[in-house]
Amino acid sequence: MTAQFQVTNLNKNFSSPRGDVIALEGVSFVVSQDEFVCIVGPSGCGKSTLLRLIAGLTEPTGGIVNFSGWLSTPRRAMVFQDTGLFAWLNILENVAFGLETQGIAQNERHQRASELIARMGLSDFARHYPYELSGGMRQRVAIARALVTEPDILLMDEPFRTLDAQTRLVLQDELLRLWRERPMMVLFVTHDIEEAILLGNRVLVLSNRPGHILAEIVVPLEQPRNLTGRSHPEIEALRWQIWKMIEPTVQANLKRAPMQ
Ligand code: ADP
Ligand code: MG
Fold first, then answer.
1. How far is CA 123 from CA 112, 137, 159, 173, 234, in A?
2. Which has the least CB within 10 A, 37, 187, 197, 225?
3. Residue 260 banded pLDDT, cuts 50, 70, 90
4. Which atom of ligand 1 is least distant from the CA of 42?
């Protein structure tokens, strides 16, 4: 049986002084081992909330997140938009930090962290501190910190959002390479339709809040992909198809207060 996780009829409400916010309503989908799935949706539709639910960082109001076919509870690691690196730790210590909670001895922690830092092309910066690195390098460190724990499921929340377009392209390419070298389940959240199509084998389109799945689209591009070959007509058609689904909600968002 293929290992997978299944989200069934997931709901999430938040209470606030201005009333309840229904972030997610009736979200259901399945992701199988080693799949690279992107979740795309307008700002505020519940993407981060969905990832946090899958990561086990918060509890659903209703519905279930179920993992099946794994030998033990799958290890999950998360990469955020703001890298969350510790300013007072150097790069080696930042990457090794993820292993500390697993009770791994310092020698092994540092060895595994060094290997990943090398894979990310950052060996010369292992003793540097985060403020000494560019945004792209810091995001690489954040990815290394997640991968060092050898996760079964990598959850990424708009990790490249703050990067310039060229750096983003390089990191997108690197991420696909890392995933090919060591396949794992990846759930990649983005508001960028093109990014979702370029990276994902499948794209889940989330509606405006309360977020629910509008469509599941299989991307008809082979892996490995050449991300610089951006003029594929299939990509253009898909981008248009997804934009047409999201556009009304983006328009509606522009006409209402943020917390309505
Ligand atoms: P996205 O990541 O798609 O931009 P979020 O998942 O961050 O969306 O948020 C979805 C909705 O839930 C938003 O309206 C947001 O204000 C609300 N929300 C998210 N987290 C909380 C929280 N901890 N408390 C109250 N409201 C929240
Ligand atoms: Mg978010």
1. 13, 11, 21, 19, 38
2. 225
3. very low
4. 3
